[in-house]
Amino acid sequence: MRMLAYASDSDSRGTIDARIPEGIDLHWLAQPEELSSQENARGLVLFSRRWPDPAIERLLKLFTPRPVVLIDMTDEGHWHNVEQPAGVRLTDLNELEDQLFQLCSPQAFSPARTLALLSARNDFDGALVAIYAAWSLKKRKSGRVLILDLGLPQSDVAAYLDLQPRIGLVDLVESRDQLDRGWLDDKEIEAVPGIDVIGLRAETGLGRISAQALTSALEALESRYDHLVFNLVGMQPSALLKLVATRCEQHWLLADQKSLSLAAAMEMAHELFEQGIRPGGVNLLLAPYSREVLPALDSIEKRIPLPLRGALPWIPQALTHINAGTLLPPPADLLPLMQAVERALWLRAPDPWWRRLTHRSA
């Protein structure tokens, strides 16, 4: 992942370089003016020993809301005492490596507490991914999971699970002040034990929803549920998508092997990056992927500058189980699909060397 860095004094570069995690390609800016030619950078590291620092202030203004890690080495911690633009993470040298890992690694925040599934083209059924992601979270974690199904042109999760929706997103938002008082308790939204589903009803009424009201509702849901899975597949870039996406820890971009599908995934990624979304959380999920079709996996990884989250098999029997309402618990012939979703969801950081040594010694 390509990131930029700038320090007013060049003597600091070696100190920063020594703390850059593996997988980050750090490019130093000699002057702030060079920023305009670095459009594909995913983040910016700034090192400041003085206050005020006009060059640092200019870079902050130009780069945000894309993520910036600002290392405040001023004597009085001046940058900490100034209100910073959205996207700025203040840190010191000792925490720099951890900050960059959380910012850039797809293994951070795995499994995600809030997960968004996105695709502007609808080349794969996002409802299937949402269902099996929720099942995996419920199976391996305690607590409750909510699938908020905003997929377009239809939100199909409830229908796939033989659930008759009684409320939708608009009802949820309009009753946001009652969510912390048990308003959902008697609503028939549980598809299977531990997994609730809320979608878009036939008359969506989305035009009546304000950003403030939706934010308030999402905050209440985050308090009620242990995990939220947002199916946004089919939704074009919009104010609604932006608001929901900015609250998520991970963003899986669904694409198949068509060039058009992969290009659309990159366009969506750029939309997210411009909103300041954590770059390590914007991942490509090949859905579906077949070894018998070109381009091959290694070719896609070289071509698409996004972390590859996983590859889902196409299993025709899924259609039979959708029609029969037998997707959960996962039937034997759909286990490869379920397991592929689970591997993507539970992606883990490698064990430190000392932990691997301990395991071998034991």
Question: How is the topology of this model organized?
Answer:
Layout: E1 2-7, H1 13-17, E2 25-28, E3 44-48, H2 54-63, E4 68-72, E5 88-91, H3 96-104, E6 114-119, H4 126-140, E7 145-149, H5 157-160, H6 169-174, E8 190-192, E9 195-198, H7 211-224, E10 227-233, H8 239-245, E11 250-255, H9 259-274, E12 282-286, H10 297-303, E13 308-311, H11 317-324, H12 335-345, H13 353-361
Helix pairs in contact: 4-12, 7-8
Protein name: CpaE family protein
How would you sum up this structure in a few lines?
The model is unreliable at 350-362 (pLDDT under 50).
**What letter string, H or E per element, gives the SSE order?**
EHEEHEEHEHEHHEEHEHEHEHEHHH
Unreliable segments (pLDDT under 50, ≥5 consecutive)? 350-362
What is the residue-mean pLDDT, rounded to a whole number? 91
Helix content: 25-40%
Measured distance between first and last alpha carbons: 36 Å
Radius of gyration: 22 Å
Structural class: alpha/beta
CATH topology of the largest domain: Rossmann fold
Basic shape: globular
Total count of strands: 13
Protein name: CpaE family protein
Task: Characterize the structure shown.
The chain has helices spanning 13-17, 54-63, 96-104, 126-140, 157-160, 169-174, 211-224, 239-245, 259-274, 297-303, 317-324, 335-345, 353-361; strands spanning 2-7, 25-28, 44-48, 68-72, 88-91, 114-119, 145-149, 190-192, 195-198, 227-233, 250-255, 282-286, 308-311. Helix 1 (13-17) links the parallel strand 1 (2-7) and strand 2 (25-28). It has 13 helices and 13 strands. It starts with a strand and ends with a helix. This is CpaE family protein. InterPro entries: P-loop_NTPase (IPR027417).
